[in-house]
Specification:
Elements lengths: L1 E6 L8 E7 L7 H4 L6 E7 L3 H14 L3 E7 L8 H13 L7 E6 L1 H13 L6 E5 L2 H7 L4 E6 L2 E8 L4 E5 L8 H18 L1 H15 L3 H21 L14 H11 L6 H18 L5 H13 L11 H8 L12 E6 L2 E5 L4 H11 L3
Parallel strand pairs: 2-9, 3-4, 3-5, 5-6, 6-9
Antiparallel strand pairs: 1-2, 7-8, 10-11
Length: about 375
């Protein structure tokens, strides 16, 4: 097991929390019990993950004297909304959960985001723990305290920054992950190499086949290096006032794809992959990177079995949806682009013509 600390010091209040990464560590129940303020937890999961891991987790906790209360949500991005959030609130209220009752998020990114937002707002804030069971959640959404829900007009537009007590990433849970979900998670892994870690990008090019084959040692290495990168960025910029925005490489285009095609039609990682290729093409048209760089970026996403062509949608629709991006400032959409592979930057000086050309070019092979 490896442990990475997310450390927000120096800050007004000293805060830090561990990310534990390993194969089979979900059975190390003492990691959870040791940080509970009260021997009572609510476990939020979904209809897909609960049958796989919930009973085992409940039994292990109850053996340690921890009372458990399961809350099972419907599965899928289409359920990341107010209605599903209220399922959590209803259960917490009916069972008289208190301010020291910890909420455990057992599932992928949707479960983690919903649970974190519920924890941030129930009784104005209760403790929660992330137990991510998908690759995307283990390397990205469970780390850094971004929580929230989707709105019909935009993805993740309603939420809060709220940090967990701990993240417990057990790579053994990836054994039950569908291939499509595993590939989707790799999009966020590749992102770290592109924005700030060129050596990691090289390593991913050489080890992609091992990741797709679910080699546990290689998976643990990819998860650890991704979390190290994210932990450094988040600790330096918790509320996304500066460098944390670089984590959104490909996301402005990607969120437009998710929304425009209908939530859940494209998985988040699939949309990010196509969106990152669009960001690379935009960078080339801004004369920041070469055509060879763009092809290298396309190639690694193809290696990972991810889409590199944007879905057919009017360019005007892309532009309209991208105006709902959280990086919009003074009515201008700001984009994360690449100065080179391993160095990202945010730019707002992109002409409508270049943006339009990029969108149209990326909808064809």
């Amino acid at each position: 097991m490896q442990t990475i600390m997310v450390d927000f010091t120096p800050s007004a209040e000293k805060r830090s929390y561990p990310i534990h990464i390993g194969h089979g560590i979900l059975q190390h129940i003492d990691l959870i019990v040791s940080c509970l303020p009260q021997k009572r937890v609510a476990i939020v999961s979904n209809s897909t993950v609960a049958p796989l891991y919930l009973e085992k987790l409940q039994t292990a906790l109850e053996k340690q004297g921890v009372r458990t209360m399961p809350i099972i949500l419907p599965d899928g991005e289409t359920h990341k909304n107010w209605e599903t959030l209220n399922i959590i609130f209803d259960a917490l209220l009916k069972n008289h959960c208190e301010r020291n009752t910890t909420i455990l998020a057992l599932g992928g990114g949707v479960v983690g985001d919903l649970t974190g937002f519920a924890a941030a707002t129930y009784l104005r804030g209760v403790p929660f723990i992330q137990i991510p069971t998908t690759l995307l959640a283990q390397v990205d959404s469970s780390v850094g305290g971004k929580t929230g829900i989707n709105h019909p007009l935009g993805k993740n537009m309603i939420g809060a920054f709220y940090q967990p007590l701990m993240v417990l990433a057990d790579s053994a849970t990836l054994n039950t992950l569908p291939d499509r979900e595993l590939r989707a998670g790799l999009a966020e892994v590749i992102k770290y190499g592109l924005i700030r870690d060129p050596a990691f990008f090289d390593w991913l090019e050489q080890n992609m086949h091992r990741l797709l084959a679910r080699d546990p040692v290689t998976l643990n290495e990819a998860i650890q290096r991704s979390c190290e990168n994210k932990a450094e960025i988040v600790a330096a910029d918790e509320k996304e006032k500066g460098i944390r925005a670089l984590l959104n490489l490909g996301h402005t285009f990607g969120h437009a794809i998710e929304n425009g095609m209908g939530y859940g039609v494209w998985l988040h990682g699939e949309a990010v992959a196509a969106g990152t290729v669009m960001a690379a093409e935009l960078s080339r048209r801004m004369k920041l990177i070469s055509e060879a760089d763009v092809q290298r970026i396309r190639k690694i996403f193809i290696q990972a079995g991810l889409p590199v062509v944007a879905p057919e949608m009017p360019a005007e629709k892309y532009l309209e949806l991208m105006l709902l991006d959280k990086k919009v400032e003074s009515g201008k959409t700001r984009f994360i682009v690449l100065n080179r592979i391993g160095e990202a930057v945010m730019r707002a000086d992109i002409t409508p013509a270049v943006l339009n050309e990029t969108i149209l070019a990326c909808m064809t092979e």
